[in-house]
Amino acid sequence: MVSAGALVWISLRPLLRLVMCVTGGYAITKADIFPRVAAQGAGQIALNITIPCLMFSKMVPAFTSDNIGALGPLLLICVIYQALSVGIAWLTKQFFWVPHRFRYGILVAGGWANYGDIPTAVIMSITGASPFNGDSDQNLSVAYISVFILYYMMTFFPMGGNKVIAWDFKGPDVEPEEVKESVRLRRQFIFRGWPRALRQALLCRCQAHDEPDAENQTDEKMPSKTDLAADDDNDIHHHPRHGRHVSFSEETSSTAVLTDVDFTSAPPTEKLHSPQPSQTATQTLPYDGCGSRPLTPIAEDHPPSPSPVRRRWQKFCITARGVLKSLLTPASITILISFPIALIKPLKALFVEVDGYYMPSAPDGEPPLAFVTDFAEFMGAASVPLGLICLGSALARLNVPRSQWPHLPLGAIFSLAVGRMLLMPVFGVLVCEGLVNAGVISRDDKVLRFVCILFSCLPTATTQVFVTQVYSGTGSAEHLSAFLIPQYILMFLSMTALSAYTLQMLF
């Protein structure tokens, strides 16, 4: 049994290392020696080289036929966490005003968390030491993390999660006062309006039961045909109707308007409107040789438009091409390749030693492709520090002037921060323990339980900053900056507490 002080220190130590790395990236950015171009280049190196190497070096030795069944619970946890987080963001949007250019971005900020450098740094540090089993549990934890990363990449890019951010910048702008008034009316209806509406609905329903039969009432009040004819005759001779407007369908290409017409007079003369200028330029009304009615207009020759089936097929091809292009990233490809290599013993034995399977070794006594694993481990070791430095650089560029804080949506900012960093960990513990009691998650797999619970306490991904800068057209993400800063401040307190509680619960 580990003491409470030891649990707190075990939980706090990886966060201190994380803070030091993030502070380094923050400092060199503020000192103007790590410009934006360099940060973007470092991010590309981390995304396309170091992270794939880290995933490969950990997944291949960690996954076996015994623990591959954890994929199902991990994907289920991903879906549940995303649904809960989006629900928290949606409720925040309903009760507090959010800038018009962030009305959809807040849903993305709730639904997609930082599944990369932060949990990897913390979990690798905790599972690599006591009370866990050292390197074996560390490799297994990173293998489990890869499932979260793969889910993030598939839902955010190929499935269009990033396109939701673009919806914020479509349409005209709306003043904050109008948004505030709309939210105020919504809150008023939620807290005071719905009881009145429910009471009125019940009253109408009671009145409907008390009324006589609808058919009998119709028979009593329905006038006869003779009365209708007499009324129409009186209306025609004594009450002329004015202002009647009669419009024909667009297919007739003409409109007749009858204004101030007395129906006692002779019928008006029919009058054909002249065609529109565009129609006279492209259409003619040929007559047959006998001067009879004009024939059907001859339309100008145009190239045949594709059929609806062909248009749908073209749209599907474009969408599928975009999905494949987004999915075929180095990190996604590496993760997808690592699964069969880890599960097929002849392939796995080429990279690492496999118990019970013979594979001819290289001259140094290692598996034939062990040098690939060595390279992946060497490059993957740079993934976490490089990612944390880029995170510190991104936070250093989040500029929210103090003079603007009174004008910011503070209610939505702090509600989302509390929901993600304080409320979601509670949901995470309840969901994971419920799945353990239901037999979905193995009670003996403490690494899986620890990873699943810790992933409930993550702030919004900084990737949204870059995507927002692209879609905004101005290169700014001022609304998102204010929502990120409180989350990352609360993260150090909530993650320490959650890690200590989880370790106490597991051990």
Provide the structure class: mainly alpha
Q: Tell me the fraction of residues in β-strands, as a range.
A: under 5%
Number of helices: 20
CATH class of the domain at 4-170 and 331-506: Mainly Alpha
How is the main sheet built?
none
- Give the averaged pLDDT, no decimals: 80
Distance between the termini: 7 Å
Question: How many DSSP E strands?
Answer: 0
* Percent of residues in helices: 55-70%
Overall CATH architecture of the domain at 4-170 and 331-506: Up-down Bundle
Q: What is the CA-atom radius of gyration, in angstroms?
A: 34 Å
CATH topology category name of the domain at 4-170 and 331-506: Na+/H+ antiporter like fold
The coarse overall form would be globular
Outline the low-pLDDT stretches.
Answer: 214-222, 228-299
Q: How would you describe this structure to a colleague?
A:
One of its GO terms (cellular component) is membrane. Keywords: Membrane, Transmembrane, Transmembrane helix. Its main location: membrane. It comes from Guyanagaster necrorhizus. This protein is mainly α and 507 residues long. It has a domain of 343 residues: Na+/H+ antiporter like fold, CATH 1.20.1530. It is built from 20 helices and no strands. Helix 1 crosses helix 16 and helix 2 crosses helix 6. The longest helix has 35 residues. It is globular. The N and C termini lie close together (7 Å). About 16% of the residues have low confidence.
